[in-house]
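Q: Convert this sequence to structure tokens.
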Amino acid sequence: MTTESSIADNPEQLSYKSQLDTLRLIAVMLVFHFHAGVFLQHNGNQFPYGALGVQIFFVLSGFLITRILEANQTGDLLVDLKTFYIRRCLRIFPAYYLLITLLLLIGQLPFPIYQFTYLFNLKVFLDKGFTGTVVHFWSLCVEEQFYLLYPLALLLTTKRLRIYLLGILIVASMVANVIAGKNFSDRPYYMLLPVCGQFLLWGCLAGHVQLRGWSNKIDGAYLFVIGLVLQAIDQYFVLTTRNFSDMNDLFWYRQYTLSAVSIALMVLGLWETKNTFLLKVFNYRPFAYLGKISYGIYLYHPFAFVIYMLICYFQPAFKAVNGELVALIVTVVWSILSWQFFESRVLTLKERFAYRGETPQAA
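A:
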């Protein structure tokens, strides 16, 4: 078993892995293409993989924050939590709060109290759904709620018992999924942390396994391929049972877990792999850069569709131009500017709250 001190002394264990940025890019493009169909009302509206993009983000977040917390634990709970939360706030809050403040000022922010307190997902659940340019914020709420609860639970649990903690939480999330599905089928219960938290938790388990050194005996490429095959099986079932009312009661819940496990294996495999082909593809610099700014792409992309539709309203001839391509260009340019001139500059403040010996990949 790898000890905490040996982890901190091992640069390979703590190094930045740009291949995960490319996986982020894949995730955000799945969401982007799904929303292109929703906003532009073309055939892409039937694109079934938007949810998969969000699931990938959740697993990545669980994987990375678990590595960050465990690898940098000092034994002082308050110090560890303070460092973690300050760094998380510096990464997530500035772009998000600037955006929703601007939306509030122009009268385009529904339920501002819920948005500012990261409870929008709960509001959507209680209202039995919501549509609009800010509906994607529900996933950011889930992550913030998870960040609020999980670090304390993990750090209060001894290292030897953490594997059991994660197992119990995963089973609890599976049970919550079944209960919610049976009692709240008329609501978007997948937006609730106890349900979709399963994706975050499988990512946490993968991060814990990697830090303990239990996965380095298997070639990461094999783990990635196994995860990819399982995800293909999962998507086959999704595509062949699109009418949820026809599903067997427990089928959908089993499928949910299969997707989470498959993504966790792919993330773990990409982290561990030494395969030159995988590394060449996933470390391709333009892809990795776009993955690095994927938070901005995720935040801003629905508004790019609105910009395109406004242009078409005032200049009908512009409808001949591919709306999804225009929105993509607008989103990428907006995200690059946000990253270069705002987000990355705020992130320089992280240097004042550095982890011991690590420059971890942002979750």
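Confidence is low (pLDDT under 50) at residues 1-13, 244-251.
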